[in-house]
Specification:
With 355 residues, the chain is α/β, with parallel strands linked by helices. The chain is built from 15 helices and 13 strands. It folds into two domains: 4-164 and 338-354, 3-Layer(aba) Sandwich (Rossmann fold), CATH 3.40.50.2000; 175-334, Glycogen Phosphorylase B (Rossmann fold).
């Protein structure tokens, strides 16, 4: 195989599911290919330890999309236009020897979720990249069907390669948390994450159940989503906003929770519920196609527009209904997803593109 180049701009971004996919796949590809793979990034890297592990090459002077469109493309052309693997939705537009990863097209379905600048950029870039790329990776059969539907892309051009849970994730018991009864959600003020549903359902439940808590993990920056008003929930002292926390602490919260709640309106995959399953937490998710594909019968499903139903399901979990059966199913389900298997599929695709 000829030398492979990887767009490592993800190392300049905060870690969400998209960046997690890129990081875990990249680590395995580096171990497999060693000097036959080159990771290229702009200078504003924030994940320096990962960059060192990948032996990242810094090129150019620009940042963000401008770096991809100018500096990265120029560097690749100077290096005989090799195959470029893009793992985080975007890549150089006028460079055809591309594999592009499109995790989902939520911006097409829920445009109110995103800033005007983001929408303009993605609505311009993503369709053009999808048409021009040699191959497309996505993370679920559902996302594949959406890409085909919205962009009229050929079925055999799109390859489903699933996410998984980082090897470090495991059950970690915390004696103090074990004394509490609480539900957990990982969210943001992004409209499609549907945090309002959890807050409303728990607020109602807490009026009759006096010894339970809701812990909310995630970045809740009101400046980005002005349609959210958390003020009324601040009055409920049993709703605790934890902000962003380290993975080890997150594992502790997963492990001791009554249930983990993830009521998204739209997802391409959904890593946090899988993390919760690995940490032996029961999981409640929204009744959407993607989650049925990934979780099958290992979770409880709720209507993402019905807080009354969520309150009812939370009450069942409060009383430990079918808890151990769901934990067992969750552990079996999580084992189906493996970064090693996913990386092998990426490697196979790279080999096919070199032929």
């Amino acid at each position: 195989m000829k030398k492979i180049f990887v767009n490592a701009r993800f190392l300049t971004q905060r870690i969400t599911g998209v960046q997690r996919f890129a990081i875990e796949i990249s680590k395995i590809l580096k171990r497999e290919l060693n000097d036959d793979i080159v990771f290229v990034a702009p200078k504003d890297i924030i994940h320096k330890e990962i960059a060192a592990e990948l032996n990242v090459k810094i090129v150019g002077h620009n940042k963000s999309h401008i770096w991809e469109q100018i500096d990265l493309r120029r560097f690749l052309i100077k290096n005989s236009s090799p195959i470029l693997l893009n793992l985080c939705n975007t890549g150089p537009l006028f460079y055809r020897n591309n594999i592009i990863t499109i995790h989902d097209i939520a911006f097409e379905i829920y445009p109110q979720t995103y800033s005007k600048k983001f929408l303009i950029t993605y609505k311009y870039l993503i369709p053009k990249l999808a048409y021009s790329a040699k191959q497309i990776i996505t993370v679920s059969e559902f996302s594949k069907s959406e890409i085909i539907k919205y962009y009229n892309i050929s079925d055999n051009k799109i390859h489903v390669i699933y996410n998984a849970v980082s090897p470090e994730f495991q059950q970690i018991r915390n004696a103090d948390l074990e004394k509490e009864k609480y539900f957990l959600t990982v969210s943001s003020l992004n409209y499609r994450k549907n945090l309002n549903l959890v807050l409303k359902a728990f607020d109602d439940l807490s009026k009759t159940e006096k010894d339970i808590y809701l812990y909310v993990v995630g970045d809740l920056d009101n400046r980005s989503f002005s349609n959210y008003d958390l003020q009324k929930y601040n009055l409920n002292n049993r709703i605790v906003f934890l902000g962003r926390i380290e993975d080890e602490k997150l594992m502790e919260y997963y492990t001791s929770s009554l249930a983990f709640i993830y009521p998204s309106l739209y997802e391409g995959f959904g890593i946090p519920p899988l993390e919760a399953q690995k940490c032996e937490a029961p999981v409640i998710v929204s009744d959407i196609p993607c989650f049925h594909e990934i979780f099958e019968d290992s979770v409880s499903y709720i209507n993402p527009h019905d807080p009354i139903q969520l309150t009812y399901i939370m009450n069942l979990h409060l009383n430990y209904m079918n808890r151990f059966q769901q934990i067992e199913k969750g552990l079996d389900n999580e084992k189906k997803y493996d970064w090693g298997k996913s990386a092998k599929k990426v490697l196979k695709l790279l080999e096919e593109c070199e032929r």
